[in-house]
Amino acid sequence: MVDSCPGENFLEGINTPSTGETINEEVIRKKVFSLLLGEKGYRFEDIEEEVPFELTTEREIFQLKVSLIIRLNNRRLILIKCGTGSILARERAALALARLFSKCQIPITVVTNGVEATLLNTLTGETLDSGPDVIPDKTRLLSQLADLKFLPLPERRIKLEKQILAAFEGLGLHGECG
Is residue 72 a part of any domain in this protein? Predict the structure, then answer.
């Protein structure tokens, strides 16, 4: 059981994630990575792990990492956010990250705790599927490639998405706090 919210350390000036969160996220990421290679047909070169992302807001700079990104045909197609606790609590931050990550939004976002997962349309925020096996295999994803849209985030939405991501990441609001 967590005695305090990880965000409390941040507020006290200690900008480090809780040890439990880091270890558990790593275990979940490795589990999903193995699933992608073993059951979903992806190759090592199709998957980026712990991809750094710098979030710059008006007041702060956050050094973040994306758990996994699936990349095919030189396009980032799926951003996967791994973490413990409630996946529902992570969805909004994961969508913001997928929207801000590059010039064009990564079209699909997955949030997982290693047991359950939610598949989201990054552009609309719509839940496409949920359950333990929602990540599409490589063959299915390649067949859907022509239907995916790679659009830039509208300029008017950038500040809002940055604020949302900063609130979740900076204050440690990852779903572990009771």
Answer: yes
Report how many domains make up the chain: 1
Q: What is the CATH number of the domain that holds 113?
A: 3.90.1570.30
Q: What's 12's DSSP letter?
A: T
What separation in angstroms does the CA of 71 have from each of 24, 41, 66, 79, 145?
24, 13, 13, 9, 11
pTM over 0.85: no
Residue 63's domain comprises: 28-165
Domain membership flag for residue 174 = no
CA distance 102 to 119: 20
108-112/75-82 β-pairing: parallel
- Does a structural domain hold residue 59? yes
Tokens at residue 146, please?
A: 């022509």
Query: In the numeric block, which tokens belong to residue 155?
Result: 């300029």
Cα-based distances in Å from 127 to 5, 59, 68, 136, 138: 28, 32, 19, 14, 20
User: Quick one: average pLDDT of 157-162?
Assistant: 96
Residue 128 lies in a domain: yes
Using 50, 70 and 90 to split pLDDT, how confident is the model at 73?
Answer: very high
CA distance 32 to 144: 21
pLDDT: is 87 or 80 the higher one? 80
> Which of 39, 13, 47, 29 lies closest to 136, judged by CA?
39
